[in-house]
Amino acid sequence: MEKLYLYNTLNKRKEEFRPLVDNKVGLYTCGPTVYNYAHIGNLRTYIFEDILKRVLLYNGYKVKHIMNITDVGHLTGDMNMGEDKLELGAKREGKTAWEIAEFYTKAFNEDVSKLNILKPDKQPKATDYIQEQIDLIKKLEKKGYTYKTSDGIYFDTAKFKNYNKLSHLKLDELKEGARVERNLEKKNPTDFALWKFSEPLTPPSLRATSPYKEEDKISRRQMEWESPWGVGFPGWHIECSAMSLKLLGKQLDIHCGGIDHINIHHTNEIAQSEAATGRKFFNYWLHGAFLNIAGGKKMAKSDENFLTLENALVKKGINPLAYRYGALSTHYRKPMEYSEEAIRSAQKGLDKLWKKIMELKEQKAEGKDRKVNAEFKIQFLKVINDDLNTPKALALVQKVLKSDLSPEEKFATVLDFDQVLGLGLDIIKIRVEKSVIFKWDIEGTQPEAARLLKLREKARAEKNWPESDRLREEIEKLGYSVEDTKEGMRIKKI
Ligand code: AMP
Ligand code: ZN
């Protein structure tokens, strides 16, 4: 068996992956903050994590995957300041924070399903684990890692040795980064809130550097809980520690997110978890690079360049899987540039691949006795086990298709690879949408209509007009209208 190597941010090198318990893997991926739609940058990170999970499964591991839903405590400033993003979403849309969370969790799950991302085993909500978070803070308090300010309970990062072990930054650099969110009551700039009070003890107007606005004085929060320290809500970082410790138990193998999580969120998760338990918190830390927009700027929800799956792809008639294909063409640790042109070229690449698979299907390559080519499988394992090298894996797919293997063997081998790639090759059929140009796609349609459409396309290419007319009539009998346009046949369900 090929060994699996993953780049571990903790040690800044590729390392052989070894799980803590037998052939089982505990995988924790930081999930979305559900106050808005996910943008395609966020979705790039979830695609990378999906590839990781599929590679683990392909290697025969039994994976327990937890992805949390952040529905409280993530403030507009990642450390401790600003407004809770959920409460902000509630104000923006005139709904309750709970409604906002429910709506955007559903939207998120629809997006990831369109990208063929496997579902986690559990998707716990931070608001369902308040007690676990309070218990963890109590432990930290008992061990002397916490202190109180007028707006909450804070973790004293100076008390935790090797606070910078994930970021590898000098402490001064980390402090400098943290100074963006000034809070004069903190002992160290890197200290972060574990619990925040709904009503700060000092009125915001009396604070030296208050990020609060006048109206915050009167508005109590929608999401708040009783705690030993007063009514309030948990800080953002504590939820991932509490839920991963509770749900993965001893299987703290791999923890992932985007690179922006390294210096603050994951650094703080490690500090508070290891301080509380006295044990190592996750052995492997993997981080995906950003999706940038032209000029290398990071895509962010607060920007005007906030592209969702819906507005960047679906509305433009581009299949979401083309984005997945595009994401796989770039290694997950390299920045990816977004442009409409790049997406359209990914769509073309995927269309070509689907077409090849359909041709193999037409050659009856789907037979039951199909077998995967052993040599290509070894090559495939080598590239994906080398820190998830998906660009090389895609190149290998082309190599298989161009090889002199029999159609059956080609089909079986590429479909085997698709367990990792997730490009829908197993379910591809010709789709006829309400009103779209005839094209290769997944999702079912009437197989007979699809077959006739294909024949008609061929007849037209051969300028066999009588045959083309005859086929049109046949297709119409099945309940579709056919219009010939410059781009191809436009099919409508009547
Ligand atoms: P959030 O919903 O803001 O908590 O982010 C969800 C995930 O998306 C996190 O793992 C982030 O690190 C990641 N992320 C945020 N912006 C980008 C981006 N432009 N490209 C790739 N991943 C991102
Ligand atoms: Zn997290």
TrEMBL record:
Gene encoding the protein: cysS
Keyword Magnesium tagged: no
UniProt name for this protein: Cysteine--tRNA ligase
Reactions performed catalytically: tRNA(Cys) + L-cysteine + ATP = L-cysteinyl-tRNA(Cys) + AMP + diphosphate
UniProt-annotated location(s): Cytoplasm
Residues at which Zn(2+) binds: C30, C240, H265, E269
Entries under PANTHER family matching the protein: CYSTEINE--TRNA LIGASE, CYTOPLASMIC, CYSTEINYL-TRNA SYNTHETASE
Cofactor comment: Binds 1 zinc ion per subunit.
All residue ranges annotated as the tRNA synthetases class I catalytic domain in the record: 17-347
Entry's Gene Ontology BP terms: cysteinyl-tRNA aminoacylation
UniProt motif 'HIGH' region: location: 32-42
Boundaries of every Cysteinyl-tRNA ligase anticodon binding domain copy: 446-488
EC assignment: 6.1.1.16
GO CC, any one term: cytosol
List of residues binding ATP: K301
Alphabetical list of Gene3D superfamilies matching this protein: Cysteine-tRNA ligase, C-terminal anti-codon recognition domain, HUPs
UniProt source species: Candidatus Falkowbacteria bacterium GW2011_GWF2_39_8
